[in-house]
Description:
By secondary structure, the protein is mostly helical. It contains 4 helices and no strands. It has a domain at 67-120. The chain is elongated.
Amino acid sequence: MAERYSSFRSGSTTWLLQRLTAAFLVVVLAFHFFNLHFVTHAYNIEFAGSQARMSEVGYYLTMVLFLVTATFHGVNGVYNALVNQGIEGKAKRAAQIVLGLAGLLLVVQGIRVANTLAGF
C-alpha cells in the first residue's frame, strides 16, 4: 500500500491555517449561497443591490475576510500541491514568489472593488 505524503507537517502553522480557513470558507460560502441564491435569486441581483449590501459594515468586513481567507487557502493549497509533486530548489522558490505576488494582487484588487462598491 502506498504511503501517504503531504508537505503539510501536522500541527504546523500552515497546516492549522489551511484547516481554519477551510472551516471559515464553508460557513461563509453557505451564507453566500443562502443569501444570494435563495433569499435573493440570481436574476434579481443588480449593481445597486450589491452596493447596498457592501455599504453595511458587517457585510463588507465579512466579504473582505472571505476574500483574504479564500486567497490564502487557494494559494497555500496550490503551493503545497506543487511541493507534494516534488518541486524543489529554484522552481520551488519561483512558485513561492509567483503565487505570493498573485495572491497579493488578487487581495489588493478585491479590496479596491469592495471599497468602490461600499462607496469609499
